[in-house]
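Tokens in:
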């Protein structure tokens, strides 16, 4: 049996497999120790291959595993041999069969051969070789079985739909601009293609059947596969990887400043175009002490308050003579809250003095304080006993007294008396009393007792602002008990955090399952404010530019009350987008969804139901707990056996029953039916898919293609894998040429819709690196940052923006301070204005030629 796989692509020549410092090649073939392989084009998977087997009913399955395989043996410069076993995952020592796999490189051709030998008699559903085709690249492409054409679906197939099957002698897969994959067989061969997206995967899997049925010990089966490449690719074999640097020769130097020189009373006309400080009201505390009402933060006059914040430690406060300048720069990013995470021991007197002056400088700019008390040093689930809880409570009370009752050396006020103190948090990311739902039923009582004691102590010493208990995700079975112990809900989350070995996965959240966004929604409660206290997105992830606009628009859709980023930096990919993201969230450029969905929970059922990602991108989601009165929702989902709790909120919403183990697609169909009865303009079909539009028409998430769209009257944006796409939005058309991944936004700055605006801010950002940044990529594609020098560089984004606005505009590239640096050409056709940018900056100003005064939006 012979399998011929021809891959036509633009591949560059590369040296051998030794790890070395090089610029990444357009194509790389990487083999693990086991012989499983991946073909990458521009550092993204294009084709993956692995052998596997499964017993009847797929009760046990196995695949090539590095753990059960010897390292690759280099037999010659152009030949490697892999030896190993296929063993069940549950019992890796009980091998079903052994195999030899060879890799031979002949010029531009790679030949891969498998020889399997059964170790014992066994019945198998199948022994196969699997080729995975990423859906992001192949969805919508044509698959030809001999003369019969089949289009791989754009959207996930139903879980009950049969895979594409056949016995072809020739099979061709169109892969678009990369050419085609042609597979030839010596004779008709059983193959099938299955869409794995319906079951949570992200690939089309093409399987070639080698054997099935009752197999005998000693039986042998073989398969050869040939990859014909346009040019010799970079080839990495065995347990190594490669150290490399991205080619940044054409990237743009762009260093954001950490200070601002503008005086506090600067006139609006003199402010930088990227200055979002007008979203803040100064000084902090001018409206009194923050309160909670109807599930939100409010001021005594009833006005809503949202927060866009960052985390800092008191010990990193700048020198007193720089405090005003740093505070001004923080305010220019649109930041109106600092979450102070104090250590268990107060810093020295000099550090406290710097901290006091910095807090005062921030307050003058309209930046509030969110003070997180030191976390008890022994706080972990292993010590959740009444005696230990008593000791920890005493520690927390003493820490609260030390920090909150001291006087600020710059203002003379105690912390508890300062109206710029907006929030106090008792513990941080500490599931002290977390438990499995079916174990230790008294744990929630201990937790509630601990937090109620601390809550009472904080009120006793004079804390007047809202209090949050903790921001770790509680056991769902404890949710209703813990909610009662605080004034607001705090929750944090992370994406692609640094592993213990120093690597990150480098995956994009926009093409995943929604990352931490559904988990944030799972913590929301109908009658309490929700503050996202910790957004920890990996600072080395090359897709991190997706986060600010995605999170700001999603939080606005969900009508949450605040977002706090886990660190403050001068990273253009994240902080550089804050002036736009803050306008979206704080300035109200994006609106809450029209429909409000409540989940009626009881402690027995709550642990088995979390919000599906698709619903949090469409409708507001809140938990409705027993014994709590909340505003009536539009749609209710009852968990458990479908019974509604006796003291559920009185209302007449559409009610849906959801039982543990129900097919998520079934709930989606029922919810869509209910939404249509309420005349919600969803704009998408009932069948299961992974492209979702918000019910207010302002956001859309295409999970399969990894794209997120914001389209509001005053802000339009596209985030994700948008390179090579023409994206029509409200009054704007974005034609993004390169790179493949980017974040592009256009925002009105004068309070008018884009179609009538005289001044707009265009942002375009993709990857961002420091000078000489060195990477190491292992064979699984994970990355480790090895080192870099000072200086920030931006990958250029080439895009054409067509604006449906009758005015004549000029286009300027702005410097990192938001000031004009270079005028760029602009063109007009009929009533449209067209602008092309090619990475001159990440900020661009579009200004009409008529004279006017600039009044920044949000004031």
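Residues out:
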């Amino acid at each position: 049996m012979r399998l011929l796989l021809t891959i036509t692509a633009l591949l560059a020549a590369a040296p051998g497999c030794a790890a070395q410092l090089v610029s990444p090649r357009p194509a790389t073939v990487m083999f693990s120790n086991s012989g499983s392989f991946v073909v990458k084009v521009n550092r993204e998977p294009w084709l993956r291959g692995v052998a596997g087997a499964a017993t009847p009913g797929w009760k046990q399955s196995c695949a090539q595993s590095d753990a059960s395989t010897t390292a690759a043996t280099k037999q010659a410069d152009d030949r490697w041999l892999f030896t190993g076993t296929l063993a069940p995952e549950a019992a890796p020592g009980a091998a079903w069969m052994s195999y030899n796999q060879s890799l031979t490189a002949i010029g531009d051709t790679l030949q891969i051969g498998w020889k399997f030998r059964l170790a014992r008699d066994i019945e198998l559903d199948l022994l196969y070789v699997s080729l995975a085709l990423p859906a992001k690249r192949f969805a919508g492409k044509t698959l030809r079985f001999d003369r019969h054409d089949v289009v791989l679906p754009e959207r996930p197939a139903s879980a009950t739909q049969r895979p594409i099957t056949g016995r072809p002698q020739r099979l061709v897969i169109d892969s678009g601009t990369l050419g085609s994959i042609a597979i030839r067989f010596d004779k008709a061969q059983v193959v099938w293609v299955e869409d794995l997206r319906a079951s949570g995967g992200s690939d089309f899997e093409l399987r070639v059947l080698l054997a099935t049925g009752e197999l005998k010990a000693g039986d042998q089966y073989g398969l050869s596969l040939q990859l014909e490449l346009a040019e010799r690719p970079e080839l990495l074999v065995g347990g190594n990887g490669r150290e490399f640097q991205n080619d940044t020769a054409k990237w743009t130097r762009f260093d954001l400043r950490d200070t601002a020189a503008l005086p506090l009373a600067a006139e609006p006309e003199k402010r930088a175009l990227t200055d979002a400080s007008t979203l803040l009201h100064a000084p902090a505390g001018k409206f009194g002490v923050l309160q909670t009402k109807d599930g939100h933060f409010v001021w005594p006059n009833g006005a809503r308050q949202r927060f866009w914040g960052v985390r800092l430690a008191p010990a990193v406060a700048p020198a007193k003579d720089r405090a005003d300048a740093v505070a001004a720069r923080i305010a220019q990013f649109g930041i109106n809250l600092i979450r102070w995470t104090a250590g268990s021991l107060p810093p020295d007197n000099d550090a406290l003095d710097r901290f006091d002056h910095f807090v005062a400088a921030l307050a003058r700019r309209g930046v509030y304080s969110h003070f997180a008390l030191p976390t008890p040093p022994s706080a972990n689930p292993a010590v959740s006993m009444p005696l230990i809880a008593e000791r920890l409570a005493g520690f927390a009370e003493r820490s609260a007294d030390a920090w909150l009752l001291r006087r600020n050396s710059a203002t003379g006020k105690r912390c508890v008396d300062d109206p710029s103190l907006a929030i106090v948090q008792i513990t941080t990311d500490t599931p002290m009393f977390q438990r499995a739902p079916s174990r230790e039923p008294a744990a929630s009582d201990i937790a509630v007792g601990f937090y109620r004691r601390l809550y009472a102590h904080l009120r006793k010493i004079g804390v007047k602002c809202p209090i949050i208990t903790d921001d770790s995700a509680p056991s769902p079975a404890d949710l209703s008990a813990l909610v009662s112990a605080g004034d607001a809900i705090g929750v944090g989350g992370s994406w692609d955090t640094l592993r213990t070995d120093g690597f990150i996965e480098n995956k994009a959240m926009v093409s995943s399952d929604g990352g931490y966004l559904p988990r944030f929604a799972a913590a929301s409660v109908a009658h309490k404010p929700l503050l996202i206290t910790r957004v920890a997105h990996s600072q080395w992830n090359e897709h991190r530019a997706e986060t600010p606009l995605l999170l700001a628009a999603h939080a606005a859709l969900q009508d949450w009350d605040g977002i706090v980023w886990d660190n403050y930096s001068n990273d253009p990919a994240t902080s550089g987008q804050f002036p736009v993201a803050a306008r979206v969230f704080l300035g109200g450029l994006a609106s809450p969804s029209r429909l409000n969905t409540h989940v009626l929970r009881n402690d027995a059922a709550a642990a088995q139901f979390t919000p599906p990602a698709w619903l949090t991108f469409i409708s507001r989601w809140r938990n409705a707990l027993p014994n709590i009165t909340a505003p009536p929702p539009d749609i209710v989902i009852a968990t458990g056996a479908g019974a509604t709790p006796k003291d559920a909120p009185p209302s007449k919403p559409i009610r849906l029953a959801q039982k543990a183990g129900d097919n998520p697609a079934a709930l989606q169909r029922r919810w869509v039916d209910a939404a249509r009865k309420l005349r919600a303009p969803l704009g998408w079909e009932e069948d299961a898919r992974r492209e979702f539009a918000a019910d207010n028409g302002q956001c859309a998430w295409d999970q399969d293609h990894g794209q997120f769209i914001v389209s509001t009257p005053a802000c339009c944006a596209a985030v994700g894998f948008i390179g090579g796409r023409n994206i029509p939005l409200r009054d704007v058309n974005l034609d993004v040429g390169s790179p493949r991944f980017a974040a592009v936004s256009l925002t009105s700055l004068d309070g008018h819709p884009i179609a009538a605006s005289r001044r707009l801010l265009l942002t375009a950002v993709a990857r961002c690196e420091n000078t000489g940044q060195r990477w190491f990529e292992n064979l699984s594609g994970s990355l480790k940052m090895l080192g870099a020098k000072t200086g920030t560089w931006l990958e250029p984004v080439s895009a054409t923006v067509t604006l449906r606005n009758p005015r004549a505009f000029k286009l300027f590239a702005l410097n990192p301070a938001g000031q004009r640096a270079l005028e760029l050409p602009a063109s007009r056709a009929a009533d449209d204005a067209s602008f092309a940018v090619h990475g001159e900056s990440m900020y661009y100003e579009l200004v009409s030629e008529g004279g006017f005064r600039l009044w920044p939006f949000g004031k």
